[in-house]
Amino acid sequence: MAYAIIETGGKQLRVEPGRFYDVERLPVEEDGSVTIDRVLFVDSDGEISVGQPWVDGATVEGTVLRHLRGRKIIVYKMRPKKKTRKKQGHRQELTRLMITSIRLNGAIVSGSETPASLVAEPEDTHVEETEDLAVTSAMAEETVAEPTDAPTEEATEE
Questions:
Q1: Average pLDDT of the segment spanning 75-82
Q2: DSSP readout, 77-145?
Q3: Band of the pLDDT at 114, cuts 50, 70, 90?
Q4: Which of 41, 67, 91, 142 is most buried (CB neighbours < 10 A)?
């Protein structure tokens, strides 16, 4: 499967289309699209492109799913023999990013324009009841036999 290594938020990530990643907060609205052009490496089914430092013409496109905050970490500073202690918490602001496609020189290497998982089209699931359905449900009720305590004919013949 094709993948790319990108740089965002001062970190490098290995990304694949159809997956989501938590990156540093991006100044984009939810359900907005993002194009990242800081691509360091692209692998397209064995065909690789290495940038120095970035691959020319390579972009990674994604959609912002939501903004969130990371887990809380505790920062505790203490100076021994001075009775000085400082306890402080921190939660990092993050953006959940769904990678939709990887492009190299304008051509899509992997992914699609709009993945089916993000575009939910309403389907007509209403089924009209016809006479055939009514007949089959009536036949199903008739075939269900209630258990009886009377012995069967096979048991009496033995």
A1: 95
A2: EEETTTTEEEEEEE--EEEEEEEEEEEETTEEEEE-SS-TTT------------HHHHHHHHHHHHH-P
A3: low
A4: 41
| Both tokens assigned to 108 | 């899509």
Give the residue-averaged pLDDT of 84-101. 96
C-alpha span between 121 and 123 (Å, rounded): 6
pLDDT of the residue at 148:
57
More confident residue, 132 or 107: 107
Q: In which residue are the tokens 């000085």 written?
A: 84
Instruction: Go through the chain and tell me how many residues it has.
Output: 158
Structural domain boundaries of the chain? Answer: 1-111
For the chain, the first-to-last Cα distance in angstroms comes to: 68
> How far apart are alpha carbons 64 and 55 in whole angstroms?
23
φ and ψ of 109, to 5 deg: -80, -45
Question: What letter does residue 135 receive in the DSSP assignment?
Answer: H
Q: Are 42 and 4 in contact (CB under 8 A)?
A: yes
Contact 22, 95 (CB under 8 A): yes
Tokens standing for residue 9: 């938020």
